[in-house]
Write a structure and sequence with these properties.
Number of strands: 4
Shape: elongated
Helix content: 40-55%
Radius of gyration: 22 Å
Largest sheet: 2 strands, parallel
Structural class: mainly alpha
Oligomer: single chain
Strand content: 5-15%
Length: about 190
């Protein structure tokens, strides 16, 4: 019996709170609906769950719920990831950020069947981010753009703009932007 619905987008819902209404909306015939008990549905919006509810998630779903609410995995850094590939696929699907899936293979190769803790995944993602930031700053200093480098450190919007500016190449992620010829290549 359906009693709980997990909504992945929005803080409000057009999901009916009645099982009958939900089935009617999805094309079930009134004759069929008469054969089914009408139950109240509880809808959980994953991006607005209170900590008390999220704390009950002991599986990988807890990582997703925490990330959607807090923007990080910090609270669960000591928790084991059970289904790394599925978790990263879900994170990419709900955030649109491909970095989650780009790093799965690398981490799985390192661990080769051993437990993978969230803190290891966080460390790997942070290392990639630091390498990207370092390459940006080096490029800016090489071009004599000291003020842009200082702003990139202090302001997230400026940093995002500069990443876009230096990522107009067609190398499919092999280098960092227009760094061809500079000898500074990093994977992004």
């Amino acid at each position: 019996m359906i009693a709980i619905v997990i909504a992945w987008t929005g803080k409000t819902s057009r999901i009916p709170r009645s099982l009958h209404a939900l089935l009617l909306r999805n094309g079930a015939s009134p004759e069929r609906i008469e054969q089914i008990d009408d139950n109240k549905l509880t809808v959980y919006h994953t991006n607005s769950l209170p900590l008390e509810i999220r704390s009950r998630f002991t599986s990988d779903l807890g990582f997703v719920a925490d990330y959607l609410n807090e923007g990080s995995f910090e609270r669960r850094k000591g928790q084991e990831i059970i289904h790394l590939e599925a978790l990263c696929d879900m994170m990419e699907a709900v955030t649109g950020d491909a970095r989650f899936t780009e790093q799965v293979r690398e981490l799985m190769e390192k661990k080769k069947g051993k437990k993978i803790m969230m803190c290891e995944y966080i460390n790997q993602m942070e290392a990639k981010g630091e390498a990207k930031m370092t390459a940006l700053l080096e490029r800016l200093y090489d071009l004599g753009r000291r003020e842009d480098a200082e702003q990139a450190v202090r302001d997230l919007e400026t940093r995002a703009r500069l990443y876009r500016e230096f990522s107009n190449c067609q190398c499919e992620g092999i280098c960092f932007g227009n760094m061809h010829g500079s000898g500074k290549f990093i994977s992004v």
